[in-house]
Amino acid sequence: MMFLAGITIPIVSSIQSNSRKGITSAQISQMELAIRQFESDFGVFPPDDYRTSVTPISLGGISIPTDDDLDTASKCLAFFLGCKFTFSSASFNGVYGPYIEFKKSQISGMGVNFADDTADLSIEGINATREVFQYKDPFGSFYSYDSSSPSYNVASFDIYSLGPDKIDSFGTETSDDITNW
Questions:
Q1: N or C: which end of the chain has fewer CB within 10 A?
Q2: pLDDT tens digits for range 6-50
Q3: What is the gyration radius of the CA atoms in the chain, in angstroms?
Q4: pTM for the full model?
Q5: What's the mean pLDDT when you consider all of the chain?
Q6: Which residues have C-beta within 8 Å of that of residue 115, sequence separation ≥ 6?
Q7: Do the beta carbons of residue 78 and residue 44 sit within 8 Å?
C-alpha cells in the first residue's frame, strides 16, 4: 500500500503542475490578445509603469490620469486590461474595455484606489471598484510584463510567468518560466 502511495503522489503532483503550465500559457495568450486590442483602440501598448512621471495615454484629446499606485507591470496589466473607460466630451465619446475578465482567485487587491474620474472620463475598475489590483499566475506569482524595453519581443512586449519554481530566470532556455516568446 505504501508503495502505491509512493508512486501515486509524484504522478498526481506532476499532472497538477502540467495543468497549471497549460492554464498559464492560455492566460498569456489571452493577455496578448487583450493587449493588442488595447493597442488597436489607443495606439499604444498598455504601459508597464503609469506613475505621474510618465506621459499619460489619451484618446480623443482626453487623458487617462496617471497614478503613483500604478507602479508595477502587474498592476498596469490589471488596470488597463480590466477597466472600462468611458470618454464623454463635446468632441469625443466612446467606451473602451474591459479587454479581459480576470478570475477572482487570481487578482490581489492592493488596498489603494486609483485616481478619480475627470469631467470627460469615467473609469470603472475590476469588480466595479476603484481598487488597484495585481494579476497572479496559477502558481501564485504576479505576471511579469515589459512594454517599455522588452528584451525578447523587441517590437512589442514581453509577458511571462515565473513558473512552478517561482524564480525569475527572465525566460532563459534553462528556466521553467512560461513566456510569450
A1: N
A2: 666 666 556 676 788 999 999 999 999 999 999 999 999 999 999
A3: 19
A4: 0.86
A5: 89
A6: 65, 66, 67, 123
A7: no
Q: Which of 48, 67, 64 lies closest to 56 in space, CA to CA?
A: 64
Distance CA 124, CA 142 (A): 22
Which phi and psi angles does 74 have, rounded to 5°?
Answer: -65, -40
Task: Tell me which residue of 60, 93, 66 sits closest to 80, measured CA to CA.
Answer: 66
Written as one letter, the residue type at 21 is K
In the DSSP assignment, the letter for residue 65 is: P
With a CB cutoff of 8 Å and minimum separation 6, the contacts of 25 are 178
State yes or no: pLDDT of 179 exceeds 80.
Answer: yes
The 158-161 sheet, strands edge to edge: 144-146, 158-161, 178-179
- In single-letter form, the type of residue at position 117 comes to D
Half-sphere exposure of 143 (CA within 13 A, CB side): 34
